[in-house]
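Researcher: Excuse me, tokens okay?
***
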Amino acid sequence: MQGLIIENISNLYKIKCNNKEYKATARGKFKKDEISPVVGDLAQLVQIDENKKEAVIEKILPRKVYIKRPKMANITQIILVVSSKNPKPDLLLLDKQLAFAENLGIKAIIVLNKTDLDDKEDFKVIKEIYEKIGYEVIETAAKEKIGIDLLKEKLKNNINAFAGNSGVGKSTLINAIFNKDMTQEGEISKKNKRGKNTTTSIKLYEIDYNTYIADTPGFSTFDISEIGSKQLENCFREFKEKIPNCEFIGCTHIKENKCGIKQAIKDGTISQERYDRFCKIYNEMKERENKKW
């Protein structure tokens, strides 16, 4: 049998196979081979007890995508949730997550949630910046069920991972999509306006045939150490066509003059704010790389 791993708690796996759910353990050979099955893996199973729906994982099929933290495989789309208000938009995190998605070759959709709380509609500036780059941006107010139908349509035929800081409304969005409580909603601390992470395990929720969404604790705190500072420029998609305009090969776009990226900022084709965040991420990477030596 072949199935999709939809949950992993303490090395006990839930696997969707032929419209049935099995509980499975993994063969000891996986530990020997230093590989562990993860949520999103396609696995070959051997049935142990059909009545109890128990099985053993015999083999993990080749992965198209693998994420180390949180451990997931084969996701095809990342939904990056940003709060328009309370907590305030964390665009540095968003740009790190977009770079992460670009590096893996996974489609990213940006969701601007809690737009109903943004009286000044500052979120429209954010939307314009990222749509200009070529990203799809969806406005939602999860508790009011605004934008949910459009988002649900975009999830079809994908294994979708939701990512974003705690408190931005990931769980509320998932609950709105299913129209029932699928996940525990987070609390926003009135004192510090920061979210408190309440989700404890990665789980795929089936929306429709061949369509899943995952609530992924830890995604908000992941680092992008797998991307080297030299590769970062290729993870900012609007930079790519401007890089050949740099006079120097290996231009870092930080200190050099006659830089294609800096010229594009002057021309208004690259956002100054995006560039500033690129510099911050680049410097963080360089600092980390220098510490290794």
Summary: The first strand starts at residue 2 and ends at 9. Helices lie at 29-32, 91-104, 123-133, 148-155, 170-178, 260-267, 272-292. DSSP finds seven helices and 15 strands in the chain.
